[in-house]
Amino acid sequence: MDQLKCPRCKTSSYQKPNLKLLVNVCGHKLCGDCVEVVFIRASGPCPECGVVLRKNQFRLQQFDDSYIEKEVDIRKKILKDYNKTERDFPSLREYNDYLEEVETIIYNLANGVDVDQTRAKMDAYKKDNQTLIMKNRDRQLRVEKVLMNQIHQEVAERDYKNKEALEIEKRITIQKKREKDSIIDELIYSDRPASEVLASHAAVSGNTAGEESSETVATKKDALLPSHHALVGMTVFDPLPMSQGKVYSYQPLLLSTWGPGVPELEEMESFGYLSNMRCLEEHHIGSGFVPAYACQRALQDAFSCLLLKPQDI
Fold it and tell me: Which of 64-78, 120-134, 275-289 holds the top average pLDDT?
């Protein structure tokens, strides 16, 4: 496992297990102690590149590669202003050109290419599209709000279903324990034979289970999760009961290729199609691949539409 290491003080995660590396806009990382020492004031130069940084802009490192960390941070900031969508352009070509321009800006800032010209271009864009930028931000916030509401609703519904299923299983467990205690008490204190006592309890339990099972299926069908089969007489380890209706049967899809039939995989070698195929090494066929697959695909492409006539089009 790779160890974290501060490039300034050389402290590693081996020496300090709780070491946390922080990064800023330039992408160079420092440990928390070095940030406190170097940036004792509100701002200061980066020890590696000399870019003036603010102390309050340091954040925890997410990626091992500092370049990826820098590019992701730049991309987030750029996309806050370059937030146009396809609906804002009259044609798909113009939208693709816009996306290419955004990627060029991100690349220039991440690699230090024409930084001044790129920032001037960004300032001009924000000035000319200020109204549209704010409009798209508001629209994006509304979409995110709707998605968060849906997520919270789904989580609440799932928790409710889990709670309902657990309550049903709890009632079933309590009922079974009561029945068991009742059988034991009757076997101890009753004068009837044990076989008769067990038979009577089995009959009563069967009738009760049938009534409660039908009621549970009718009223709690939508409240149960697939992992909680809380029907009477079933446990969480029992398979799901088969639904009523016709069982699905797979039927292969028949497609017309307008050409001769292609030999099956078992017939490829006997017909000589594999005589010119390159032999594969052991690691090539480890996942189950065999040369006959590629040969059969080539024959399908070659035979396709050989028998197609103009009147069939």
Answer: 120-134
Question: Per-residue pLDDT tens for 276-296?
Answer: 877 777 766 766 777 788 888
Helix axis angle, 115-128 relative to 66-81, nearest 10°? 30
Q: Burial of 78 by CB count in 10 Å (0-12 exposed, 13-18 middle, 19+ buried)?
A: middle
pLDDT at 218: 45
Query: Could you report the per-residue pLDDT of 100-115, keeping only the tens digit for each?
Result: 999 999 998 888 888 8
Q: Which residue has the tokens 């069982």?
A: 247
When pLDDT is averaged across residues 81-102 and rounded to a whole number, the result is: 90
CA distance 273 to 303: 14
d(CA 288, CA 286): 6
What do you get for the CA distance between the two ends of the chain, in Å?
62
Question: Using the 8-state DSSP alphabet, how is residue 4 labeled?
Answer: P
DSSP 164-199: HHHHHHHHHHHHHHHHHHHHHHHHHH--S-HHHHHH
How remote is the C-alpha of 300 from its chain's centroid?
Answer: 35
Q: Dump the DSSP string for 20-80.
A: -EEE-TT--EEEHHHHHHHTSSSEEE-TTT--EEEGGG-EE---SSHHHHHHHHHHHHHHH
205 pLDDT more than 80: no
Q: With a threshold of 0.85, does the pTM exceed it?
A: no
Q: What's phi and psi for 297, nearest 5 deg?
A: -65, -40
What is the Cα–Cα distance from 108 to 119, expressed in whole angstroms? 10
Instruction: Provide the token pair at 279.
Output: 């032999």
